[in-house]
Give the backbone structure.
Amino acid sequence: MIYKTKGVCCREIHLEVANGVITELNFLNGCDGNLKGIAELAKGRNAEEIIKIMSGIKCKDRPTSCPDQLAAALRTMNTSNA
């Protein structure tokens, strides 16, 4: 799945989830090292767990962040798979 982000430096999140577990995760643009770290921490973990951890995180004065956008992408996947 490719998720087009809103309100952050990262333009897209590319992710795959199998049986509720994140198997692939990459961010396009944004803070390279931080986003690579988030991706590695999230891979192999349950999508619902990542949604709970990442939802509501803000970046500076923005109402969202790259982790919050990851949670939004995962929620979208859950909704489209329901």
Observations:
- The mean pLDDT is 95.
- Residues 10 and 38 are 13 Å apart (CA to CA).
